[in-house]
Write a structure and sequence with these properties.
409 residues, four-stranded antiparallel sheet, 14 strands
């Protein structure tokens, strides 16, 4: 299992664990709220019984004291109505408002009381009681403010915890990513430094061979020189990691063609390379780094092909958006749709000896250094894969005459 899959599994495990804790918290809070609901319902029935008796025995001072004590301890809002729905009296509501227009000491707001009564009818079943003249009355109540707050408290708590965890995770990930980038940049520059000495030595040995054996025109020596030049380019690539590269105006077709010509002679003869599309479109590129992009994509394409196959590179100009589209298609194994984004993650590889960094570096070079995009455009298992690179065109010009006929490199 590669590091990315392990990391993904840990994330899923932690997410499930956090979900379990959250569910347990909500369950316990709900249990506690329901217990308070039952206690408030009991308290309400007690209030109704005492209020009913007080109406019948309004001149009983002892009962009045009991009622006042219960009233002080009662945190609920209560409304008593007549059978026709009109409000008879209320308790616990806003004391600055009144139902009576002739009461000048308070704000007349009958809509407020109607709205409160509607809420009470929605929340709980009413209780029947008798008034002073033994008339039938109906009592309603709504949840106390404490119970109302407790209903929302677990969700607010979970929201705050989730916000804290997300902030902490993003901050930690950003710090870890910056640390990893610094480590990677340091290793890349040290690699470039270490390559410098053997490359210089190899260049001297080649010159010695050419002089001692009169091999100026020997094709093998020429290929050795090409490989040394390639090593110089690789060292230059590593030295540019971590610093902003200098972008220059290049013909995209010429840059890709030059690398393909070098790459194909070092690949199996059973693999056919086809370069087609617009031969004139231009873009701002860092030559060594963009070669690295094409190299990684071509290597992945070669590894995806079992025996023989074809790798096609098609360059398209999108005049409407002033973009350059580069499609690299192989006839290899293909990629499952679920892995389209995963293939760019560090550590992801299908090879036993792979590091899983090639496509990660490719994405970084395209997006961070060339302000472009790269993604899996299409793939089908057993038939092949197409990667698409999108770059900004360096100039605006009229469409060139292009036959669109492929050319074998």
């Amino acid at each position: 299992m590669n590091p990315y899959q392990k990391k993904k599994r840990w994330k899923v495990f932690l997410l499930l664990f956090a979900g379990l804790i959250g569910a347990a918290s909500v369950f316990y809070s709900d249990f506690f709220v329901k217990k308070m609901e039952r206690e408030e319902a009991t308290q309400f029935l007690l209030w109704v019984k005492v209020a009913e008796q007080r109406m019948k025995m309004y001149d009983n001072e002892q009962l009045s004291e009991v009622f006042e004590t219960i009233k002080k301890n009662n945190k609920m809002d209560v409304i008593i109505t007549n059978p026709d729905g009109s409000i008879y009296l209320w308790d616990g509501l806003d004391t600055t408002k009144t139902l009576y227009p002739d009461n000048k000491t308070k704000e007349y707001d009958s809509v407020y009381f109607a709205r409160q009564l509607s809420k009470m009818k929605e929340q709980h079943k009413p209780a029947k009681m008798r008034g002073i003249n033994d008339e039938e009355l109906i009592a309603y109540y709504k949840d106390s403010s404490i119970l109302t707050q407790l209903r929302f408290f677990p969700y607010i708590q979970l929201g705050v915890i989730a916000l804290f965890l997300i902030t902490a995770y993003v901050g930690f990930s950003a710090a870890r990513r910056a640390e990893r980038d610094q480590e990677f940049v340091g290793m890349a520059k040290e690699t470039a430094h270490q390559l410098g000495t053997p490359i210089s030595s190899l260049m001297a040995w080649v010159e010695l061979i050419k002089t001692r054996f009169d091999a100026e025109e020997d094709p093998l020596v020429a290929e050795m020189e090409n490989d040394i030049q390639r090593l110089e380019i690789i060292a230059d690539r590593f030295s540019k990691i971590g610093s902003k590269p200098i972008l220059e105006d290049h013909v995209v077709y010429a840059v890709i063609k030059g690398f393909v010509q070098y790459f194909k002679v070092r690949t199996s003869d059973k693999i056919n390379f086809v370069l087609t599309g617009d031969t004139q479109v231009r873009a701002m590129l860092s030559g060594p780094l963009f070669d690295w992009v094409i190299e990684n994509l071509l290597k992945n394409a070669v590894n995806a092909i079992d025996n023989d196959g074809t790798i096609t590179i098609n360059i398209i100009e999108n005049l409407a958006k002033e973009e350059v589209l580069i499609d690299i298609t192989d006839t290899g194994k293909g990629i499952p749709r679920s892995k389209f984004d995963t293939v760019f993650q560090p550590g992801f590889t299908t090879r036993k000896r792979g590091w899983g960094l090639g496509l990660t570096l490719t994405k970084r070079i395209v997006e961070n250094y060339h302000s472009g995009q790269i993604f899996v455009k299409d793939s089908e298992l057993g038939k092949g894969t197409t990667f698409r690179i999108i770059l900004k065109s360096s100039i605006t010009y009229e469409p060139t005459t292009n036959t669109g006929l492929p050319s074998v490199v």
